[in-house]
Design brief:
Blueprint lengths: L4 H7 L5 H17 L4 E3 L2 E4 L4 H17 L7 E4 L9 H4 L3 H16 L24 E2 L2 H11 L8 H10 L1 E3 L13 E5 L8 H15 L4 E4 L8 H14 L6 E2 L16 E4 L1 H11 L7 E9 L1 H11 L8 E5 L1 H10 L1 H8 L2 E4 L15 E4 L2 H10 L3 E4 L2 H6 L3
Parallel strand pairs: 2-3, 2-4, 6-7, 6-9, 7-8, 10-11, 10-13, 11-12, 13-14
Antiparallel strand pairs: 1-5
Helix pairs in contact: 1-2, 2-7, 3-5, 6-9, 8-9, 8-10, 9-14, 11-13
Length: about 400
């Protein structure tokens, strides 16, 4: 692997121990995956933020880096934390958990990292351009960036993403390269399958991810009017969760699709029954203790839709709408938050049901409209799940 003279100095420790340690990790990854060089990156998104996920060992690691003066060289955003960073007490998060979580945030802040705490950085101020090399780590964000935007990133781990942010480069392998971005399986959507909502796309994503594992699917038959920012992020998030899909293409919709070769590919046909069977398979509970939507984090349009659906209603169960702090501020200004709160719900920033300690807060059955959350909640949070469309979840709470 070719290194520039400045990169050789980093590896030799001439720029300090933090840069050496970080760059050595990137070099090792490059060697494992056959990279020919390092490439400059435009932005980073770092996972491993929730105290629930990284624990005391992760906190010690981050505080050690921060104490040695680690600073990022490029725009760097954070994945969701384990709680609402401002309103955690009112929501019932444990105080001991909160204290540790805030120490993690302080360590990241001292490195110059934006405390975005969102899995949708592209909605909160970190929007890469088409073809730009980035180093993102949250699976749904990686999928959206590669597929919908056409930026280029591998699915980085938390440590490698942080190392890339500190060094300003990433190793040139995998989805950074043209050849690796070609589809290797075709997904044909039956013309009778009416995909209407984000949860429908989440169910489709879960079903396809289970079938294709880590392949790159090429979809045909998805209607242009159904492919919105909300539905595409739900599709990619679920495929990344049930499989390991980091890039997908959709004919006439995603930016690289129509230039991709698809002749002779193995084909998977998806019929309407597969979607309804997925809803049933992922539903293991009956009446939710709490309903939580926003995985990935809700867009402003999604928050508005939820507010309109809840207007004039009275919720009998906790109902959280998870989003980024940036979106919440706008929702506050537009009055959407007030409508949701008047109905008895909460707009929750900085976190989601997957990385929050909801099992320690007394919840056992969680209602979701996310294929990703339905996949992860049983294992990560010891939850039974009610996976349903938004309107059905609301009806279970009134």
């Amino acid at each position: 692997m070719h290194l520039t003279s400045d990169e050789e100095k980093m590896l030799a420790g001439e720029h300090g121990p933090v840069l050496e340690r970080s760059f050595r990790l990137l070099v090792r990854l490059g060697e494992i995956y056959g990279a020919d060089k390092m490439i400059p990156i435009g932005s980073v998104q770092v996972a491993g933020v929730s105290y629930k996920s990284i624990g005391d060992i992760g906190l010690e690691f981050l505080e050690d880096y921060a104490s040695q003066g680690a600073k990022v060289k490029v725009l760097t955003f954070l994945n969701p934390a384990g709680m609402d960073l401002e309103n955690w007490s009112a929501l019932g998060f444990p105080k001991e958990f909160a204290e540790k979580q805030l120490k993690i945030i302080d360590a990241f802040r001292s490195m110059g990292i934006i405390i975005s705490a969102t899995c949708t950085p592209y909605l909160a101020g970190n929007l890469p351009r088409f073809g730009e090399h980035i180093a993102w780590s949250e699976s749904s964000a990686v999928s959206f960036a590669n597929s919908v935007i056409g930026a280029r990133t591998n699915r980085e781990g938390g440590p490698s993403a942080l190392a890339a942010a500190i060094c300003g480069v990433s190793a040139n392998y995998g989805l950074h390269q043209n050849e690796a971005r070609k589809p290797n399986i075709k997904i044909e959507i039956d013309e009778k399958l009416d995909l209407r909502s984000g949860s429908d796309f989440g169910a489709l994503g879960y079903y396809v991810g289970k079938q294709v594992k880590n392949k790159i699917p090429f979809f045909s038959g998805i209607k242009t009017e159904a492919a919105t920012t909300s539905t595409l992020k739900a599709l990619g998030a679920a495929m990344a969760a049930s499989g390991a899909v980091a890039l997908y293409h959709i004919r006439d919709i995603t930016p690289e699709a129509n230039n991709m070769p698809v002749e002779g590919l193995e084909t998977l046909h998806v019929e309407p029954e597969a979607i309804e069977e997925t809803y049933a398979k992922l539903t293991t509970g009956e009446v939710p203790d709490i309903v939580i939507v926003g995985c990935p984090h809700s867009s402003l349009l999604e928050v508005e839709k939820i507010a309109n659906a809840l207007a004039g209603k009275s919720l009998k169960r906790p109902f959280w709408v998870c989003t980024s702090r940036v979106i919440k501020h706008t929702a506050d200004d537009m009055g959407f938050t007030g409508i949701i709160e008047k109905a008895g719900g909460m707009v929750v920033a900085d976190t989601c049901m997957v990385v929050a300690p909801i099992e320690d807060m007394g919840y056992r059955i969680t209602g979701v409209n996310s294929g990703k959350a339905a996949n992860y909640l049983p294992g990560f949070c010891k939850q039974d799940v009610v996976f349903a469309r938004l309107e059905d979840l609301i009806s279970k709470c009134i």
